[in-house]
Amino acid sequence: MSNPGSTPAPTSSSSPPAGSAHHDHEHTPLCRSCGAPTSAPTPAPWSGTTDSPPPAYRPIRLPAINAPTNTAAIVLSPVPQPLPVPPAAPPHAFQVPAKRIASPDDIARFHASLHGHHFLGFVAALSASVHGRKLSDPLPSPPSAAITSLLDLISALSGFVASTPPLPHNSRYGNPAFRLWHEKLGESANELIGRITATAASPSDLAGAEVELAPYLLDSFGNATRIDYGTGHETNFAAFLYCLARLGLIIEPDYPAVVLRVFAAYLDLMRTLQDTYQLEPAGSHGVWGLDDYHFLPFIFGAAQLIDHKYMKPKSIHNPDILENFSKEYMYLACVSYVKKIKKGPFAEHSPMLDDISGVPHWKKVNSGLLKMYKAEVLEKVPIMQHFLFGSLIKWED
Predict the structure, then answer these.
(1) Strands (E), 246-378
(2) What is the model's pTM?
(3) Locations of Low complexity compositional bias (predicted)?
(4) Cα 245 to Cα 392: distance, rounded to the nearest angstrom
(5) Strand pairing partners for 50?
(6) Cβ neighbours for 296, distance < 8 A, ≥ 6 positions apart
(7) pLDDT higher for 389 or 70?
(8) Which domains does the chain have, with CATH numbers?
């Protein structure tokens, strides 16, 4: 057995040793036109005594096509503030919601509208409700019947995964079994929503609400045709919750439970769907995004960590912290998931998250992410063209 530190013996394919009859011929450069040996001498090796050292190699990250171009505008924009959800008083005229956004002008119209304003305020209010709260912390008030029904809904959808195993396929993304799972979602949506509306003080006032709520729910878990999922689908789930709040089924004391129980369960289900059916990222920003699929858990997770005594944004680089606390804080769980599925240096595959880790405190991270959510999700036509408008989220001409 050879010594690991010794020079390996030449093989039949290796070049003859220096000084052999063929040495000069084998190392003489060849003409690219005729193939004959040229007279150009072989460059001499670098000498540390007479020459300058060769330049150090530094890998350069190629510019990403989807790199954000409006960073300055995001920084200077106001931080979205929590707002109350305007109640929808009966009698209701529920309708099938439809897409309305097709241009930047439509985006501007949405954000200038009452519900554009209050929808973002709802997201900010959910974030504010979990400042300093761990996922395992006791809730400030017992879960309402509507919260329990929402958790039952997500549990039922999780059960569909167990009964719908992935099918054999050769593609990296898009297991066709997801279409079967989504079909089960569609078949059970009205019944599952009916259990939530049945918890209202006057259930008869919400008769027929499924016709408007079901499309939001169906769009919350990805697209069955494309077998993909992205921040637009996640935003539809937030819109589904906003509609429930408009109907009085979710009230402000429920907000911590909405984030720490319902949204946490939704995120767990989505991770399961992504892993099981290899959902393709919808509209991913590549390396210049927080995550290929999600945005809201970073906002909520940063809010959880505000004023934490020990953990700072730079703590995401500590493997022990990620391992021990990712089950308590959504932000750490998201970073841990990114590090699990992406290979290579973190600063190269996730430069946005790496840059955020340099922010001094979590409050600034949280406020920056709220501004970024508005700019990079709610103001992007390719994402918001799928957003739905009905009687609960009205489109104002």
Answers:
(1) 280-281
(2) 0.82
(3) 1-20, 35-50
(4) 10
(5) none
(6) 123, 234, 235, 238, 263, 373
(7) 389
(8) 101-389 (1.20.120.1150)
